[in-house]
Model the fold of this input.
Amino acid sequence: MKRIIGAIGLIFSCLLISPAWAMEMAPDRLVDQTVKEVIEIINKDAELKNGNKEKMLDLIETKILPHFNFSRMTQLAMGQHWTKAAPEQQTKLVDEFRTLLVRTYSNALTSYHDEIIKVKPLPALGDKTETMVRTVVMQGKGKEPVPIDYSMEKKPDGWKVYDVTVAGVSLVTNYRGTFNSQVRKGGVEGLLKALSDKNKSLEGKK
Done:
């Protein structure tokens, strides 16, 4: 599972691309082209290759966040409880959830070791504003390939990821169960505290 999460982190980092260029690219081509580029970046950067988590975190913070719709991801993960949160709580939830995902995949990405990622081409999208980019992670050493799919939506500034599905399990749906449980126990404030505590624990993992 750790290696699968690392593979997700790799695709997250595969959106290292200039916003102007990203606006013009089809979502599958965006992922495919940048996968190749980021693998080259990791392989050529000794610090990244040797697991420099601070450098990886900085890379994700500055290059990846613009390519994800964390507001929609958080709203989907909250489900019916989203409307129970006041506007200021919603803002904090988005910030904490974003930090959780970034730190989780920053930690995981430092363990990336030569997985091969294949991106399946999409048919012409026409006027569609949502699609799913399907990829397969080839793990090697006799292990089964792992499908990782990216739900994406077209925004004025390009395609954005709003969910990730690993081997049929949606990241958003998976977190929804946890969020629902925490809201039932301690309300929205209880969830915010749980997210904050988790982020602090991840921050301490150097």
